[in-house]
UniProtKB/TrEMBL annotation:
Natural source organism: Brassica napus (Rape)
Cofactor info, note text: Binds 2 calcium ions per subunit. Binds 1 heme b (iron(II)-protoporphyrin IX) group per subunit.
Entry's Gene Ontology BP terms: hydrogen peroxide catabolic process; response to oxidative stress
Function noted in UniProt: Removal of H(2)O(2), oxidation of toxic reductants, biosynthesis and degradation of lignin, suberization, auxin catabolism, response to environmental stresses such as wounding, pathogen attack and oxidative stress. These functions might be dependent on each isozyme/isoform in each plant tissue.
Alphabetical list of Gene3D superfamilies matching this protein: 1.10.520.10, Peroxidase, domain 2 (1.10.420.10)
Protein name, entry field: Peroxidase
Lineage, highest ranks first: Eukaryota, Viridiplantae, Streptophyta, Embryophyta, Tracheophyta
Family: Belongs to the peroxidase family. Ascorbate peroxidase subfamily. Belongs to the peroxidase family. Classical plant (class III) peroxidase subfamily.
Disulfide-bond pairs as recorded: 53-136, 86-91, 142-344, 221-253
Active-site positions on this chain: 84 (proton acceptor)
Length: 348
């Protein structure tokens, strides 16, 4: 089959450390996810910086386009960064904060669930912020720059170009302990995923559509090796993996593969193109992660998967809408709740 032969060639080409999109392979937690308000869009606007920094989007765009040429992995890395930011404290740039030297209180990015966030994502935002600061000092939040950069990278990879509503302020706290209950796992069930997304004001359709970001990017063996050898303690592989794909994955992810540095494409058909190939792959049992393949198996989500697989343009439109919706989660406004950082890595 074309898909499987392409998978083989991609595996040979990409046995190195590459980013995976919003999913954690860390152990499950019994804590409950934060319920974050999704602010009405009237609080954010596309022309928020029309007077404060009218050249904002072109400034950020100059950085993202250069980064995409120099390090294409910056695209999935930054999209994942935006997701991890919004789902924990809201879209407030708290994921960008670095832990103070000697401090016992770890920032979000130090949480186990965030250890595999690629440096290219952070670097892209730091570079964009530095350029924006040189033109519009202390006027533009890191959280808005992250939202714009994520959109830019989506478009550069072939995805939709949607208008980014702005006006977020940067959060004043970043705590690693808040991360575990708020990030999906690579083996999350649909029940767990729908509950988590609902706590952020997102629907089942939003869950399926945003999962489509897995159309680009890669994941490491430890995120899915359990499916290959000991699915849910059965000592057997997950019956919902395409047999030929299973054979290939076992070649590069041995039973001891939890420490393997191999990185395999989340979408075996078109791993560098932002399209609906991810959904078509699920229909052929080509989902790399258990949480992805589960979307095709559950009656609540399967119809949406099939719809996205049939119509690429509908997926792209839906994805832009879902990103806009996600971007309004837990927005901070005003000095009581937020700040405008000069350096995204440090609180004022």
């Amino acid at each position: 089959m074309h898909v499987l032969s392409l998978t083989s060639s991609l595996i040979f080409r990409f046995l190195f450390l590459i980013s995976t999109i919003p999913i954690s392979s860390a152990k499950p937690t019994t804590s409950h996810p934060q319920t974050l308000p999704r602010h009405r869009h009237r609080e954010l606007s596309t022309d928020y910086y029309s007077k404060k920094c009218p050249q904002l989007e072109s400034l950020v765009g100059s950085v993202t386009s250069q980064r995409f040429k120099e390090a294409p992995v910056s695209a999935p890395a930054t999209i994942r960064l935006f997701f991890h930011d919004c789902f924990v404290e809201g879209c407030d740039g708290s994921i960008l904060i670095e832990t103070k030297k000697g401090s016992k209180k770890l920032a979000e990015r130090e949480a186990e669930e965030n250890k595999e966030l690629r440096e290219e994502g952070f670097v892209s935002i730091i570079k964009a912020k530095a350029l924006v600061e040189s033109h519009c000092p202390s006027r533009v939040s890191c959280s808005d720059i992250l939202a714009i950069a994520a959109r830019d990278f989506i478009h550069l990879a072939g995805g939709p170009y949607y208008q980014v509503k702005k006006g977020r302020w940067d959060g004043k706290r970043s705590t690693a302990t808040n991360v575990p209950p708020n990030i999906p796992r690579s083996n999350s069930t649909v029940d767990q995923l729908t509950k988590l997304f609902a706590s952020k004001g997102l629907t089942v359709e939003d869950l399926v559509v945003l999962s489509g970001s897995h159309t680009i990017g890669f994941s490491h063996c430890k995120s899915f090796v359990g499916r290959l050898y000991d699915f849910k303690g059965t000592k057997r592989p997950d019956p919902n993996i395409n047999p030929k794909l299973l054979k290939e994955l076992r070649m590069y992810c041995p039973f001891s593969g939890r420490s393997s540095r191999a990185a395999l494409p989340l979408d075996a058909t078109t791993p560098f193109a932002f399209d609906n190939g991810y959904y078509r792959g699920l229909g052929s049992s080509m989902g790399l992660l258990g949480s992805d393949q589960a979307l095709f198996l559950d009656p609540r989500t399967k119809p949406i998967v099939l719809e996205m697989a049939r119509d690429k343009q509908k997926f792209l439109k839906a994805f832009g809408d879902a990103m806009d919706k996600m971007g309004s989660i837990g927005v901070k406004r005003g000095r009581k709740h937020g700040e405008i950082r000069k350096d995204c890595r440090v609180f004022l």
